[in-house]
Amino acid sequence: MSTPDTLPEPAALAEQKIWDLPTRVFHWTLVLCFAGAWLTAESERTQLLHLTLGYCAGALVLWRVLWGVAGSRYALFSDFVRSPAAALRYLQAYLPGNSLVAPRRYVGHNPAGGWAVLGLLALMAAAVASGWWAYQSGAPDAAGEVHEVLTHALLILIGLHVLAVVATGFKHRENLVRAMWTGRKRALPEQGIRSSQVLIGLLLFAAVTWLGWALYAGRLPGLTT
Q1: What number of other Cβ atoms are within 10 A of residue 42's Cβ?
Q2: pLDDT for the residue 133
Q3: Which residues share a beta bridge with 14?
Q4: Minimal CA–CA distance to 108: which of 193, 51, 209, 32?
Q5: Is 123 inside any structural domain?
Q6: How confident is the model at residue 13 (pLDDT cuts 50, 70, 90)?
Q7: Rounded Cα–Cα distance for residues 75 and 24 (Å)
Q8: Residue in 112, 100, 121, 102 with CA at minimum distance from that of residue 163
Q9: In angstroms, rounded to a whole number, what is the distance separating the alpha carbons of residues 83 and 152?
């Protein structure tokens, strides 16, 4: 019998391993890459760093798609991608007048959060692709404009995602940022994952670090010159 993907409120539950290390490495490394790329976008002096961080973000997105098919339980798309109707039902608990009604608590991503993940991945991939296009010799001005629009859309969605994390954490009285850092949430014992996939997580971090170094050092000139 499968274990339900929802659980009681956290007060009476013990912490279990929920988020594997590769998922956490992906999450926080992508945060750093996007923040760094955004901060270095306007200066010619930091253009190489901007390109490096952008390409690393694109590589991370590609990896996350693969991990969404072959990863551990709560990293799988099949675990958290639900119908748009399910996401709307979940969001109804946050509407004015429903302040006393707590939405169902999920072990992994909730239905709305699942769609946010897909949106963030899609927008990040599109932003990287448009940035590459804009950097090509002879690219039209429209390429840069598309890249800028996609970046702004990403900022909006990230802002909404952060607000949702805060609101959900407040509703359920749990620290979701800490959970993504430690990999642990309060859950039933049978709802935890068996392995944190530490080796894969370390290999992912090493691969992204190598890619960043290779790009910045000019070892992949086809992408940066």
Answers
A1: 10
A2: 96
A3: 187
A4: 193
A5: yes
A6: confident
A7: 10
A8: 112
A9: 26
For residue 79, what are the domain limits? 14-224
CATH number for the domain including 44?
1.20.950
User: Does 94 map to a domain?
Assistant: yes
Mean pLDDT calculated for residue range 47-72: 98
Count of domains in the chain?
1
Q: At residue 87, what is the residue type?
A: A
Task: Provide the 3-class DSSP secondary structure of residue 137.
Answer: coil
Among 12, 8, 23, 96, which residue's Cα sits nearest to residue 64?
23
Instruction: Tokens for 132, please give them.
Output: 């590459």
Specify if 48 maps to a domain. yes
Chain-wide mean pLDDT for the chain?
92
Angle of helix 47-70 relative to helix 21-39, nearest 10 degrees, comes to: 160
Q: Which pLDDT tens digit goes with each residue over 106-135?
A: 999 999 999 999 999 999 999 999 999 999
Question: CA torsion, points 155, 169, 177, 113, in degrees to nearest 10?
Answer: -50
Residue 1 has pLDDT above 50, yes or no: no
Domain presence at residue 182 = yes
Rounded Cα–Cα distance for residues 47 and 146 (Å):
18
